[in-house]
Amino acid sequence: MSQSEKEGLYRLLIPPSLFKRFTINPLSFTDLEGNRMVRFYCPEREETVMIEVKRKRDDPDPIYSIQVSDGPDYTQVNWDFLIVNDPDSERFNIDVDEQGRDTMWGRASRNLPEELKALRAGMAPGQVRKGLGLTREVIGGLEYFARILDIKTISLEALFYHNAIVYERCGFTYFEGFKRMTRIHQAFQPGGKLFKLLNGSTPFRQPGFDKTIRGRSWAIHDGVVSEIDDDLLDEGWYSPKMYLLVGQPRTATTFPDAVY
User: Fold this and answer.
1) What confidence score (pLDDT) does residue 105 get?
2) Cβ distance 92 to 117 under 8 Å?
3) What are phi and psi of 233, to 5 degrees?
4) Per-residue pLDDT tens for 146-171?
5) Distances in Å between the alpha carbon of 227 and those of 115, 198, 219, 254?
6) What is the architecture, at CATH level 2, of domain 3-178+238-245?
7) pLDDT exceeds 90 at position 238
8) For residue 72, what pLDDT is reported?
9) Distance (Å) of CA 249 to CA 6, 114, 157, 173
């Protein structure tokens, strides 16, 4: 396909509401001044496409970025990552530590002062800004894209605990990790091993965090899972591998009646 043909196809991966909300032409991908606001990375013979949308060219963060790549066969696609930012919201610099190094979402290092500010502002781990409430619209676009290409399965790895629970609610189920997620829920029950670690020893381990998705996710991000003696959880937090059968959502629930 030519570059313009690729962009016409991959445009389906951009939520339509973004074009209207930020006054971006969905055909030319330009703003009112003619500046191109959408970037497609899809070189020939590579198995990956990455899309980035900005409100302004000099904005430090995209309002939307998604990457998908080929699965092991033509019936599967990997959803590699999704970033959604409200550009008018406060920014929390959790993506770089106090020495300016990339934290790799907290896996290489952490910026604890910024994480604490994010926690107090209602953010979840990994968020540098508020989102735009686009998850279901994004998944709808992915499913439409998949149907056109006769793709049957969308797979992903849930980076954080809260991601996994949100994807459960959107019809994803587990390739692997269901038993670990269920055990985590059990350990957060009153008297459980994780419940007992919510003792206020750090700001991310407050009593009551067991009751919400976001609270649990902060405690897990703070390392509580790696501190308990449990054969099933001996690796600590491990990103679950999940999948969605296109047009056939499943019901996998590891945190019943959860409050975000």
Assistant:
1) 87
2) yes
3) -115, 25
4) 999 999 999 999 999 999 999 999 99
5) 20, 12, 11, 21
6) 3-Layer(aba) Sandwich (3.40)
7) yes
8) 87
9) 28, 37, 17, 8
Joined together, the tokens standing for residue 6 give 């690729």
How high is the mean pLDDT of the chain?
A: 96
Residue 117 has pLDDT above 90, yes or no: yes
Residues paired with residue 240 on neighbouring β-strands, in sequence order = none
Residue 191 · residue 198 · CB < 8 Å: no
Q: How far is CA 33 from the centre of its chain?
A: 32
Domain ranges for the chain: 3-178+238-245
Q: Which residues of 17-42 are buried (b: 16+ CB within 10 A; e: fewer)?
A: ebbeebebeeeebebeeeeebbebeb
Q: Which residue carries 């926690």 as its tokens?
A: 119
Cβ proximity of 58 and 66 under 8 Å: no
When pLDDT is cut at 50, 70 and 90, the band that residue 205 belongs to is very high
For 65, the 3-state DSSP assignment is strand
Tokens of 101: 């190094």
Got the DSSP string for 171-191? T-EEEE-HHHHHHHHHHTSTT
At 202, give phi and psi (nearest 5°).
Answer: -135, 165
Cross-sheet strand order for the sheet of 241-245: 38-41, 48-53, 64-70, 76-84, 153-157, 241-245, 173-176
